[in-house]
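LOG
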Amino acid sequence: MPALVASDLDRTLIYSAAALALTMPDARAPRLLCVEVHESRPLSYMTETAAQLLTDLGDTAVFVPTTTRTRKQYLRINLPGPAPTYAICANGGHILVDGVSDPDWHAQVTARLADQCAPLAEVQEHLLRAADPVWVRKHRVADDLFAYLVVERELLNEDWVKELAVWAENRGWTVSLQGRKIYAVPKPLTKSAAMREIARRTGADLTLAAGDSLLDADLLLAADQGWRPGHGELADTGWTAPGIRVLPERGVLAGERILRELLAAAGLGRFA
């Protein structure tokens, strides 16, 4: 059976202009392909080399885009290569099959959340009350599953984020700071559970994963082999574990390196 490759998207495979980290001289910068347009403006990119690697990966493995984005946010991305049969959205809250959410999976997830953690409304109310309007730009709820804030990072009091994490922990939720977004996500809402379900459906006996944030840690641990770049929340905390490859590259070139390694591992049917 082909390998299953579950990869995070933002700051793992695709990058906003602010996250590209093009530290080389301008004349040596890689050619970029725009893979997402939002409100008529280009938003996310990968290198042209990465685009070819992703196309090759789609021909070699069961490639599963795996994201905390909502379904609507995911569907505006135009990835190169074969259209994935499966995608994981809303941090595991939705499994898309040919672009449509699987209702049975979503029902299982919502039942689990109702049974194991505090309700979304309680968390949302706390965020609205406790966050300082000085640095909060937007309050958002994602697919009625979790909440996040869009903040001015340079004004943010990061001790507040730590206090929020303690408050959330006691209610069965977790907190993740990624760029300009602070996520509050129920602990049972995981990318790893959705990946395991897709592996079951496809019969894949080798699972590979990549990601950069705290919300990707469970995905990386659940896979047979995982990769993380030299940037992001996991890198900032020095996170690693057995079976995790820590790459030195940062920015858009990390996406290229991740795809090269995923392709090698999937093509060999074992760890590259």
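LOG (cont.) second protein
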Amino acid sequence: MAEVEVWRGSVAAWECDAMGHLNVGFYVARSMEGLAGLAGELGMASVFAPAAVTTLMVREQHIRFLREARVNAPLAMTGGVLSLDETEARLLFVMRHASGELAASFQTLVTHATARDGRAFPWSDRLRARAEALKTEIPDGAAPRSIGLEPIETQASLGRAEQLGLTRTGLGVVLADHCDAFGRMRVEGFMQRLSDAIPHLFAAHGRPGQGGGRTNVGGAALEYRLIHHAWPRAGDRVELRSGVAGGDARVQRLVHWMLDPVSGRPWGSAQAISVALDLEARKIITLSDPELAEIRKGWIEGLGL
């Protein structure tokens, strides 16, 4: 198994959310720095530079959040190659605490593409040889657990969201400073908007765990799958629609669609495994039967990516 360090840093106070730990959007931002680092190790050091002819386009990510990272936590990330086909690669990034404990894992599916128009084309023999040298395996405890990675045909659209009664949890426009060197919305922008959307979902349906006399309740994501269907550019509008697809007394399965409110087509879709968190004990809350019965009323069975 081969892996190489691709990022090293720590958690700043302004990167933490109301739960007191590193916000999910910054996890994805770190993974993109890691992607640039791994690209350099593969001999593609300038693929994210403004003058690049070729690049790596992220098609989807699977993320496991394994141990929370709080203010000043030192972190490091390694990267490697899980698989490679004609034009795509599945890459693995593993974030660890200074103790060596796993903080998060990322499986990132990328396409080798022309930088300006995103047209896929084959890897070179030189790059294939380097990728073979960087082949790695998923560490114990870091593989997908509750979200599958099978190919999907998205059901996301504005019309479908209206039909299902999905809550509008976000609305805005992509600004120039939200975009990468090629004019596409940065990858972490999707997760950042999802993070902003969550309070609206719970405002509409109630936050799990707030009953039973509990006073300091928050939430956390354990796992995510994010799929990019198209890439908004500066000036494009985005709308978030969200719903709860099911769960049990400990977890809820949240679904988010990022849509173009003009055409109704999807920019992206995401599924998350979410838990209610006791912010004093830093433990997952198990809902009582009456609490579970109450939140079930807002679930949308069959809602998917």
